[in-house]
User: What shape does this take?
Amino acid sequence: MILENNQNKPPEVGGLRLEAQKNPASNLQSRHRRDDPQAERSLGEAPRALRIVIAGGGTGGHLFPGIAMAKEFTARNSATRILFVSTGNTLEKSVLSGAGFELRCIPVAGIKGRGIWNQIKAILKIPGGIWSARRILKKFSPDLTIGLGSYSAGPVVIGAWLSRIPIAIHEQNILPGITNRILSRFADRIYISFENTRSGMDPQKVRWTGNPVRPDLLESAAHPENETAQDTAHGRFTVLIIGGSQGAHRINMAIIEALDHLKNKERLHFVHQTGEADEQSVTDAYRDKAVSAIAQAFFDNMALQYGQADLIICRAGATTVAEITALGKAAIFIPFPYAADDHQMLNAADLSSDGAAEIIIEKDLNAKMLGEKIENYRDQPQALKDMAARARRFGKPDAAKNIVDDCYRLLAE
Assistant: This one.
């Protein structure tokens, strides 16, 4: 629900770095405290090293904001230790290993939308998940636990609450998911990505920070001279298609069918993240239709792909929306229609109403229409530029800094 009443509008964190000026680290008060031999700090020194557990993941939409926070924490003090705790799926293992962060796994499964028998099995796993989480927490002894909102965050945050460890949670979507709605009662801080997110959360805990974006993407945005307005090597209009970390079959098929309706195909270049299931069929289709394209299941170098894109066609997951707005890119959103509580449509609605993006409802999606839209944007560079500028106004590139600043404040209370 998008609320119009701003009477209880949560405070926005200003993004200023916390300096250890007023409260030396020796005075830090929290429910979980450790002796710090370097507690007494002089004015202007870096914040003290922390031990942080970041709980949850599952998909890139949950995982990448956590990585952005983790990198910001370690940028403040290189001695800070970060531990991710989740189910340990293939994406988590691959991405976290590449980012240089440690992962510990717990036995837990999702409940919502899985059928009665699978729900019963998932519920039976909860006590074991909490027990495993508490063992990990006891051994790692964190200063703070941060929940990212996926179901795997639940046992870890509950374990932290039972262990009297300070808790923060982050909600990526405009409408909080069931996990965060439950965990908000245990949290000391609730960080939200959209100003209109409320959903009954305690306004004293809520901070509107934005959704953290990976620093390598922000670095590319800070150097626009590296971003190609077109595929400069060949003078082509570049379309980036991303369906989330798992790909989006419906979008994949619509794009391939739209190729038959395009004119002047030699003026177009596609960069297509397909997901594993469709990688070969999409690659074959571009080749058979003689259209310039790079199609891969997953791209590790998304900063490059975003930088070279003139137009993005994608789902409307919260992290994708945050990246597009932080970078200031023109986009056509095709929200996933089966997302919980239709949150993807809500994520993109404000942008669309302000001319900062376009929305195509999936049931209305067809190849001819999609082909026409690609060509229209290719042939109207000023309209594309205006949309990108409007999108940038929605961006919160300092989200990770905002969160880390406030986490230090929380630990100083």
Observations:
- The longest strand covers residues 81-86.
